[in-house]
Automatic annotation (TrEMBL):
The lineage of its organism: Bacteria, Pseudomonadati, Bacteroidota, Flavobacteriia, Flavobacteriales. InterPro entries: Gfo/Idh/MocA-like_OxRdtase_N, Gfo/Idh/MocA_Oxidoreductases, GFO_IDH_MocA-like_dom, NAD(P)-bd_dom_sf. Gene3D superfamilies: Dihydrodipicolinate Reductase, domain 2, NAD(P)-binding Rossmann-like Domain. Residues 155-216 form the GFO/IDH/MocA-like oxidoreductase domain. This is Gfo/Idh/MocA family oxidoreductase. It comes from Aggregatimonas sangjinii. Residues 2-118 form the Gfo/Idh/MocA-like oxidoreductase N-terminal domain. It comes from the Bacteria. GO terms for molecular function: nucleotide binding. Pfam families: GFO_IDH_MocA, GFO_IDH_MocA_C3.
Amino acid sequence: MLKVGVLGAGHLGKIHLRLLNESEKYELIGFHDPDAINAEKVEAEFGYHYFENINTLIDSVDVVDIVTPTLSHYSCAKKSIEKGKHIFIEKPVTNTLQEAEELLTLTGKYKVKGQVGHVERFNPAFTSVKDAIHNPMFIETHRLAEFNPRGTDVPVVLDLMIHDIDAILSVVDSEVKQINASGVSVISNSPDIANARIEFQNGCVANLTASRISMKNMRKSRFFQKDAYISVDFLEKKVEVVKMKDAPETIGDFDMVLQNAEGVKKQIYFENPEVLSNNAILDELESFAEAINNDTVPIVTLKQGTNALRVALQIIGNFENA
């Protein structure tokens, strides 16, 4: 079992602590949080060992799980990497692109692995159809959330939209060509609603919308590709796959057939991939343990987390230049 320590015992940090404590792949050594009052409360309530000194905790583990506010991701990760520790780091990977690129260099220098907590990659709805998404040419995403003061210290792009940015980059095998975006601050000092249009070199276009002041929660993505439409509901964990193939010569009474202007007939059929229930956070943490133990590439690498951050910051840059 890998010895693991958690940095940060806030809302998400406590979830990580509980799951790591239950996992058969890790031995939870303890946690550090700069807020001593909160840390002592967590230790008293759950029994996890609180390390007052961050260096003592890092020295005691093989893996450091960084669930601190984004502003401190870089310093926590740098300290851990330079001590030869593997790092799991929550999204967004860092506060700036330069910090993310420095961490990439450091992991190579110290020969340690890193994974970024883009948890939607482990959503069972997405994993059930990811291999069926081939060369999509139009993508549309909506990620809407009811207002929650937690997280409003960063733009909605880094809070919510970055999940969809990462998912899109994982299925579009092309470089970004151009980005256009707009954002509106309604209740926060940073944008609460944002829309972005990402154009890729291969012609694919992705239209992303995110809001944290919606009347309802929604996390849906739609992928359009040749002869197929794939819908992923990340919130309800449901998928819809509609495909088209050449129509048979003899069309049955219940066959759904479309004919275009050139007279080409296509038959519509539906696929229902099995969506297995899971705990996505536990899966991402344990997948990292497997990557370390088997010396394989993590599912969400630091480079991929850096690429998602790069696009997110380009979108935010559009707001500032508007």
